[in-house]
Amino acid sequence: MTCKKMLVVTIVMSFLLVFSAHSVASENDFPDRPIRLIVPWAAGGGTDVLGRALVENAEEYLGVPVAVENITGGIGAVGLGATLAAEADGYTITFIDTYMDTIALQGRYPFTIDDFAPIIGLNKDPAALTVHADAPWETVDDFVEYARENPGAIRVGHAGEGMGWHLAGAGVAMAYDIELTYVPYDGAAPAITDLVGQHIEAVSVSGAEVSEFVRAGDLKVLAIMGDERMDLYPEVPTLLELGHDVQFYAMRGLAGPAGVPEERVQILHDAFYQMMQEPRFLEHMEDVGIGIYYSSYDDYEEVYRDSMEDVIELLEFLDLPIVEE
Question: 206 with 281, same domain?
Answer without folding.
Answer: no
